[in-house]
Amino acid sequence: MMGVPQAEPGYIIGQSFKAFGDAAAEWIVGVLAHLGILTAVYFAVNFAVMAVSFIGAIVMGSFSSTAASEPLNFAGVVALLLTFGAIFGCVFACMLWMQANFCHAANKAMDGEKLTFGDFFQFKSVAGLMKVFLCVGLIVTVGFVLIIPGIIAMVLFWAAPVIKAKEPSLSVGQCLSLSQQMVRQNFGTSLGIVVLLGLIQFAFSLMPLIGFIPAFPITALGYAIAARALSQQQCRLWP
User: Fold this and answer.
1) What average pLDDT does this structure show over 30-58?
2) 3-state class of 171 per DSSP?
3) What is the structure's pLDDT at 43?
4) Shortest CA distance to 86 belongs to which of 44, 128, 121?
C-alpha cells in the first residue's frame, strides 16, 4: 500500500520495524555480508601492518650500529603512521560504502520495490551517497568538539543522505540545504526521530554481535520513512 506516512516519531519507528520484517532475509544477509567484508579488510590491513613492522624492525636492527640509524628510525615511524592511516582509511571507506548501500536499499523499499541481494552491493550508484555521508560525518564530528553544535548538526543534516538517495542528481550542498530546511520546519519531530533511533541503536548494541543485524536496517529504514513523512511524499506503508 502506497501513501504519505504520518509525521509522528512513534509511527515512523513502527513502520521501520515492519519494513525490516517484510524483507528480513535480504537485510540480514546484506548486513552479515558487509560486516564480513569489514572484518576481512580489518584483519587483512592489520596483517599488512604486522608485516611492514616486522620487516622495518629487521632493517632498522641491521643498521642500528651505523650512523644512518637515526634517519632509519624516523623512516620507520613514518612508515608505521602511514600504515595505521591506511588501516583507518580502508575501514572507514568500507563503512561509508556500507551506510550508502543501506540507504540505497531503504529508499528502494520505500518506492515499493522488492529488495534483492545485489541492492546491498552497489558501487557507481552510491558514490554520491558516500560523499554526502562523508560531509555529514565531518560536519557532525567537528561540531562535537563543542558538543552542542555537533548535536544540532546531527539533527539538521540526518536527512541529507536520504534526499540524495531519492534524488541522485542533487549536489552534496543541495542535499545539505534541503535537509536543514526540512528539519527547521519540523524540528520537534526531527529531534524525536533522531533520539528514538539513537536509543534503538544503543539498545541493540547491548546485544553483542547480533545487535548490529537489526540496528543498521531499522535505522536506515527509519530515516527513509521519516524523510518521506516530513516532505509529504508517498512511500510504501505497512499495515
Assistant:
1) 81
2) coil
3) 86
4) 44
Cβ neighbours of residue 12 closer than 8 Å, sequence gap 6 or more: 5, 6, 193, 222, 225, 226, 229
Instruction: Convert the chain into a string of H (helix), E (strand) and C (coil).
Output: CEECCCCCHHHHHHHHHHHHHHCHHHHHHHHHHHHHHHHHHHHHHHHHHHHHHHHHHHHHHHCCCCCCHHHHHHHHHHHHHHHHHHHHHHHHHHHHHHHHHHHHHHHHHHCCCCCCHHHHCCCHHHHHHHHHHHHHHHHHHHHCCCCHHHHHHHHHHCCHHHHHHHCCCCCHHHHHHHHHHHHHHCHHHHHHHHHHHHHHHHHHHCCCCCCHHHHHHHHHHHHHHHHHHHCCCCEECCC
Q: Other CB atoms closer than 10 Å to residue 179's CB: what's the count?
A: 25
Condensed to tens digits (0 to 9), the pLDDT of residues 103-141 reads 999 999 999 999 998 899 999 889 999 999 999 999 999
Cell of 132: 554526502
All residues at 6 or more sequence positions from 116 whose CB lies less than 8 Å from its CB, including other chains = 26
Q: pLDDT per residue over 68-79, tens digit each?
A: 445 556 666 676
Boundaries of domain holding 215: 2-236
